[in-house]
Structure formats: C-alpha cells, structure tokens
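PROTEIN–LIGAND DATA SHEET

This sheet pairs a single protein chain with one bound small molecule, zinc ion, given as SMILES. Inputs appear in the order they were entered. The predicted three-dimensional arrangement of chain and ligand is reported afterwards as a token string under its own label.
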Amino acid sequence: MKTKTVILLFLIVGGLLALFSKSFVYAEGNTLKNYYCSKCGTHIEAVNQPMMGNCQTGGGHSWRCLGEVGEKNYQCSKCGLIVKSKDTPYGGVPCKSGGGHNWKRIS
Ligand SMILES: [Zn+2]
Ligand SMILES: [Zn+2]
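PREDICTION REPORTED AS:
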C-alpha cells in the first residue's frame, strides 16, 4: 500500500513537471516580441533578440525589447512609432527623439 502511494506521487509530480516545462518552453520560445533600435529607430517583430546587423547610424543596431506583440496599438507621441502590443510597451527604452518613449494607446 505504501509503495503504491509513492509510485502515484511520483507519477503526479513527474506529470506536473512535464506540463510545466512544456508551457515554459512554449512561452519562452514562440512568443513574438517587439524590438526597437534606439539608435536608428527601426522597429521589428521577432521571437528572439535580432542579430545586431548594420545600423545606419554606424556599428550594429542596439535592440531593446518593448514587450509581447498583441492586439492593441500604441503610438509614441514623440517619434510617431506605432507598435502592436499585448500591453503598454516597456518603459525605459530610449526614444530616437530623446528621453523615453511616450506611449499612447490609439486602438
Ligand atoms: Zn539601428
Ligand atoms: Zn518614441
């Protein structure tokens, strides 16, 4: 009886761990995010941090993550950039026009 309980517990814990790791990989591996180069103002949507590439201001792009891509549209009232975002884009990302972006929800 005791052995059975241990086996049952083991199966439950193992199943939960498998579920957890699956959803973790899904959340980390397949979510489209907004990236913004604070040097040239280029915006792209990508799953992973983009390659540095060649920034038109010289050197490589300086990609900063703005958060997950979603159904809502936000516009920066300073540089005019529009991003589709799940929630208000991350603050603290430098705006091409100086300071931080000033996000306003437009739809
Ligand atoms: Zn750039
Ligand atoms: Zn801006």
